[in-house]
Amino acid sequence: MANTAPVVTIGNHSLASNHWQKIQPWLTYFDADGNPAQSFQFFDSGASATSGYFWTPTNSHWDANIVINVAASDLSDVWLKSGSVSGSETMWVRAFDGTDWSNWTSFTFTTIPNATPVATINDQSLHINTWSKVENWLSYSDANGDAATKYQFWDGGTSATGAYFWTPTNSHWAANTTIEVSADDLTNVWVRGGSTTGSETLWVRAFDGSDWGNWDSFALTTTNSLPVVTISDQSVHMDQWVTVNNWLTASDADGDAITTYQFWDGGTAATSAYFWTPTNSHWDANTTIEVSAADLANVWIHGGSAVGSETLWVRGFDGTAWSNWDSFTLTSTVNTAPVATINDQSLHVNQWTKPQGWLTTSDAEGDTITKYQFWDGGTGATSAYFWTPDNSHWASGTAIDVSASDLANLWIRGGSTTGTDTMYVRAFDGTAWSSWDSFTLTSTNATPTAAISDHSLNAAQWAQLVNWTSTSDADGDAITQYQFWDGGTAANSAYFWTPDNSHWAAGTAIDVSASDLANIWVRGGTAGGTDTMYVRAFDGTSWSAWDSFVLTSLPNHAPSASISDQTLHVNEWSQISNLLSYSDTDGNAATGYQFWDGGTGASSGYFWTSTNSHWAAGTAIDVSAADINDVWMRGGASTGTETMYVRAFDGIDWSAWHAFALSTIV
Questions:
Q1: Which segments within 77-156 are labelled E, that is strand?
Q2: Domain 228-333 maps to which CATH number in 2.30.130.10, 2.60.40.10, 3.40.50.2300, 3.40.630.30?
């Protein structure tokens, strides 16, 4: 079957001069057999040096009247460039489908004139010495949609103090110089406002890759707003010192900092107020006084030495221009001394407080109190005193100067004993001292209370006094010490015990630290009866009153000891502790025992202890309760029965003798 040749079409097209266009978007390919294009051929008939031409990666400017072969896969790399001048030319294209070429298709390619770009900058204002990027001002447009490729700037201001252009390659472009900048570098072009106020004309134009636009002029005005410095009318006391910066207000619409101030004193009287600076302690009237803004805090005014008014002036400099002079009236007035008072006060012994909370001050003119003086009239070694960070104990009879700003750091300590002191205070308003105001400071202490209720103890029973003692103190002071007193003088009465004395004699004051209260004990008497005892407490300052309490020693009940009748084989041993029963109504433990052997026969049973292996009959055998396990009983050497005895001692009384029978059996 015969192959059908492909068909290629391109419509007529126009481009602005010197513009590029890919050929592929304009070209249409069709093949009835569905064969894809294998290659293309192009032909340019425009032989003029200014006409358009084809471009491929292998030839950047194909000559006219040459067949240009291009593989279909490279079609996207074929470009057309319009001519450098306007005009039309005929070009051709055909395609090959691998078997047949299409017919040549012609199209007209027209170069139209390029529309020049437009770059504009509106008139602008800059504050003196202020920087601005030109790109923030610049507007650009191009009828063909061409992007700017570069810009040119021109500065028409020839004054040495005028504005100027800055680029990274030149920090100060001279006036009447063409400044060419790539569009990519536009962001690096700056304009600096002049160093003085004024206007000048600057220019800009743009290049779109083909043509320069027209120059556009714009006016750049360098501006500066005058600062404003004012001082309102003021009053000072005669001979009072004040700093001017507390009165002065300054503003600048441009936000410029004030760098310098000038002052002028219009008062020529010998008694009038005057300015003071570190360089001149008394500036003459009608003299310009220039002061750096950094030194403004060092400018003082001294009130006149007589009542009166005068006119003073001030102005400020923002680094470029001076403000207008501002006048203000300064009136020197009579000063009324302030008043400082502290009412009579009370403090607990050794208590600390700030007198700031007690102090009241007033001033008829509303002057601020700048400092205080305090005076301590109490000369006793234990009296109250003043404390400041630089002196922990101010001696009495000393004037203590305290800045008003440090008043919170002044303390008073109550005396170390009770009593009263007369103290004083006065205040200074910057010109005059108030009269001294006296106040009485009373150092107080509420004595503590210590109490022990009446108690009963069994004979010789021990008890800890910490469990009986109660204390209170109205001031909340901690008890630091106790004293105890035993009023019972009988030999068998109750008594106190401490680790350093096991039996305190009656009629003796016994000192006990509060931390050792748990270590004082009382022992009940060894006979029934009562004793009056006493306690008092110390709060670090004062002793409480003695509190008496009755200690009743209950009569002792003799204990009971018994051994039931026993049977032993001949010569058999038995440990007495296994046989013995003990009881005591008062709960007293046995402290000792006695045994008695009533059997007198040579072959009868007997008692044995570690101190005597055969106690003779009819002998009282004393044994400590701790040694009861060392007491044994032995059956007789022959059979028979005998009576033996036991009794116990509870530390106070002996029990009755208890008899029991010992029978010896075979």
A1: 79-81, 87-96, 105-112, 118-121, 124-127, 131-133, 138-141, 150-155
A2: 2.60.40.10
Which fold is adopted by the domain 560-665?
Answer: Immunoglobulin-like (2.60.40)
Residue 365's pLDDT is what? 85
Q: Where are the domains of the chain?
A: 7-112, 118-223, 228-333, 339-444, 449-553, 560-665
Instruction: Show the tokens assigned to 622.
Output: 């004393």
Q: Pick from 202, 115, 194, 220: which is nearest to 152 by CA? A: 202
Q: What is the pLDDT of residue 246?
A: 93
Contacts of residue 515, defined as CB under 8 A and 6 or more positions apart, other chains included, come to: none
* Region for residue 419 given its phi and psi (left: phi exceeds 0; alpha: psi -120 to 50; beta: otherwise): left
Neighbours of 155 (CB within 10 A): 22
Q: Is the pLDDT of residue 328 over 90?
A: yes
Q: CB burial class (10 A; 0-12, 13-18, 19+) of residue 65? A: exposed
Give the mean pLDDT of 486-515. 96
Q: Whole-model pTM?
A: 0.49
Output the CA angle 101-107-113, nearest 5 degrees.
150
Examine the pLDDT at 84 and tell me if it is beyond 90: no
Comparing C-alpha atoms, which of 22, 27, 21 is closest to residue 9?
A: 27
CB count within 10 Å of CB 640 equals: 17
Q: Assign domain 118-223 to its CATH superfamily.
A: Immunoglobulins (2.60.40.10)
7-112 has which fold?
Immunoglobulin-like (2.60.40)
Statement: residue 342 has pLDDT above 90: yes
CATH number for the domain formed by residue range(s) 339-444: 2.60.40.10
Q: Cα(577)–Cα(255) distance, rounded to whole angstroms? A: 110
For domain 449-553, give the CATH number: 2.60.40
Residues whose CB is less than 8 angstroms from the CB of residue 30 and which lie 6 or more positions away in sequence, other chains included: 6, 7, 8, 9
Looking at the DSSP assignment, which residues form a beta bridge with residue 81?
Answer: 20, 53
Q: What single string gives the DSSP state of each residue in 393-409?
A: SPPTT--EEEEGGGGGG
pLDDT of residue 34: 95
356 pLDDT band, cuts 50/70/90, is: very high
Inter-residue contact 664 to 638 (CB < 8 Å): yes
Domain 339-444 identical in fold to domain 560-665: yes
Q: Measure the CA–CA gap between 475 and 313, rounded to whole angstroms.
A: 63
Selection from 466, 442, 439, 462 nearest residue 452 by Cα: 466
Best CA proximity match to 351, nearest among 477, 459, 251, 470: 477
Which tens digits make up the pLDDT trace of 108-155? 999 998 889 999 999 999 999 999 999 999 999 999 889 999 999 999
Tokens of 650: 């509870």
Strands (DSSP E) contained in 585-627 are 592-597, 606-608, 621-624
In the β-sheet with 385-387, what is the strand arrangement from edge to edge? 352-353, 411-413, 385-387
> Could you tell me the strand order of the sheet in which 289-292 lies?
234-237, 326-333, 308-317, 260-265, 289-292
- In whole angstroms, give the CA distance from residue 282 to residue 273: 10
